[in-house]
Design goal:
- There is one protein chain.
- This protein is mostly helical.
- It contains three helices and two strands, in the order αββαα.
- Strands 1-2 form a two-stranded antiparallel sheet.
- Helix 2 (about 70-75) crosses helix 3.
Length: about 90
């Protein structure tokens, strides 16, 4: 590759790395803020909070999942029969 292409690719990789770090940092801050608001709402018995022109609603749901480890241990044939394999392409930048 030419030097110009290498420089441009290096810039792109650096930008990807910076954006990934920024996203991780923002997700962490978002999770902390949501936890604080949820704690306030739970402590005060609020299902709905209206403040500063925004509305927060505390939602509780039930979700069922399949424990694939147990499925594979107890019913290996069924687990194998129902499994599918996909090829996924991605890049990892460090």
């Amino acid at each position: 590759m030419t030097t110009t292409i290498n420089v441009e690719l290096a810039r792109k990789l650096n930008r990807i790395n910076k954006l990934s770090n920024d996203i991780d940092s923002m997700k962490h801050e978002l999770d902390e803020l949501k936890a604080e608001v949820m704690e306030y709402m739970t402590t005060n018995g609020l299902a709905r909070l209206e403040c500063g022109g925004k509305i927060a609603t505390l939602v509780e749901s039930v979700r069922s999942t399949v424990d694939t480890k147990v499925l594979k241990e107890r019913y290996a044939d069924i687990a194998a029969e129902c499994s599918k394999t996909s090829i996924v392409k991605y890049i990892r930048v460090k």
